[in-house]
Design brief:
Radius of gyration of chain B: 17 Å
CATH superfamily of the largest domain in chain B: Thiolase/Chalcone synthase
Largest sheet of chain A: 5 strands, antiparallel
CATH topology of the largest domain in chain B: Peroxisomal Thiolase, Chain A, domain 1
CATH class of the largest domain in chain B: Alpha Beta
Number of helices of chain B: 6
Helix content of chain A: 10-25%
Helix content of chain B: 25-40%
Strand content of chain B: 25-35%
Strand content of chain A: 35-45%
Number of strands of chain A: 8
Strand order of the largest sheet of chain B: 3-2-4-5-1-6-10-9-7-8
Oligomer: heterodimer
Distance between the termini of chain A: 38 Å
């Protein structure tokens, strides 16, 4: 069973999906992604903050077509499967996302916007992680 | 102060785009290669033969991903010269009103190029341009001799007009950038324009990809003639002079 994201839900989450917009607590300085209503540590207010997109692979696994959720089934069939990783962002939060190609734990990666899938006639874009290259700004 | 190219970025994956890449994601990659954007971008022009969406402002994804809220967005599509169309339109707008503009051109099967335009942008100056347009029905049928004749005629007419306006000749240009409908027409067209073996001829899928291929290897003071063809038999000839910094970096130094 996949996670059905309606078009309005997708639209509301675009700052996170396209710009990696998280939240930083003004009181204790902890960074959250995705942003929450309040800091889970000290209950302080969170201010929007754009994360750098730089991170490091903590763990990665390969998803075969048989294990892909419905929204990614087409991609898995087309490519024979894809990599998913837990990535520790430079600002602290750990998040789960696809990799554009295989990367071992510890490898430095960079968030890039890619086409994820199409649902309800709306192409969904979001970030994946690619190996950090020499040309990265 | 004249509006020129202040920075450029290029994204051309060696093995071609991945299945999860489209015109919009490649456009974003080209902008990312350009480096950090200034705090304010007034105009965003997206050019591509094809865009992935069926309707609506496709460049909205770019504006959203780049965090550009108050920005004038325009799209130039269904033409192989969409990039120069966008570049000239934006250059004219910025020259009249000032500000900073971002022009991005995508060749869906090849890659993308991004140019940051600003007053005093010193990586390359736009000296001038000339455009021609003719009605040549039947180009889509692909009859080789007919396509070659239409292409060469439009190209030479635009190039000569541009050089006449600027008081230059073919020998003034060190680099020639072309996007011929068939690659083999590149050298033929270069000879027709009057270029010799001393000049480098760059053939690219779309004009701005070709320009960003040339700029890193060009020395300050060298001139580039960008000849873009598309939309039936329309051709833009743009003369540029390379400034300092283009050889070593995609950004003005």
């Amino acid at each position: 069973m996949g996670a059905h994201i309606t078009a309005p839900m997708y639209r509301r989450s675009l700052p996170q999906r396209l710009r990696l917009e998280g939240g930083r607590c003004g009181a204790c300085g902890v960074t959250q992604f995705p942003p929450r209503a309040a800091c889970p540590r000290c209950r302080g207010p969170l201010e929007p903050v754009r994360l750098s997109g730089r991170g490091q692979v903590v763990a990665a696994t390969f998803i075969t077509p048989a294990g892909a959720p419905p929204e990614f089934a087409g991609q898995a069939r087309q490519t024979g499967g894809y990599w998913v990783a837990i990535v520790a962002l430079a600002e602290g939060p750990c998040i789960t996302a696809q990799l554009t190609q295989a990367a071992a734990p510890g490898a430095p990666v960079m968030a890039v916007v890619r086409r994820l899938y199409e649902e309800d006639g709306v192409v969904r874009y979001g970030f994946k992680f690619a190996p950090q290259g020499v040309g990265d700004p | 102060m004249a509006v020129g190219i202040a920075a450029f970025g290029r994204y051309a994956p060696e093995d071609g785009p991945a299945p999860d890449e489209d015109a919009l994601t490649m456009a974003l990659e080209a902008v990312r290669a350009l480096g950090a954007l200034p705090g304010r971008v007034d105009c965003l022009a997206l050019a591509s033969m094809d865009l992935p969406g069926r309707r609506g402002v496709q460049a909205g994804l770019l504006a959203g991903a780049l965090g550009l809220g108050e920005v004038f967005v325009c799209e130039h599509t269904t033409s192989a010269r969409a990039g120069t169309e966008a570049l000239l339109a934006q250059w004219g707008l910025l020259s009249a009103r000032g500000g900073v503009g971002l022009t991005v051109e995508v060749a869906p099967g090849h890659g993308a190029a991004a140019l940051l335009l600003a007053e005093g942008g010193g990586l390359a100056a736009i000296d001038g341009f000339a455009s021609v347009c003719a009605e040549d029905p039947g180009l889509e049928l692909g009859v080789p001799d007919y396509v070659a004749a239409c292409y060469t005629r439009a190209l030479t007419q635009a190039a000569r007009c541009c050089m006449d306006r600027l008081g230059t000749g073919p020998e003034a240009y060190r680099h020639l950038v072309l996007n011929p409908p068939v690659p083999r027409l590149g050298p033929v067209a270069a000879r027709a324009v009057g270029c010799s073996a001393q000049q480098t001829v760059t053939v690219a899928a779309v004009p701005l990809l070709g320009l960003t291929q040339v700029l890193p290897g060009a020395a300050p003071g060298e001139r580039v003639l960008l000849l873009a063809y598309g939309s039936g038999s329309a051709c833009d000839a743009i003369s540029l002079t390379v400034g300092r910094g283009a050889r070593t970096t995609g950004r003005e130094v």
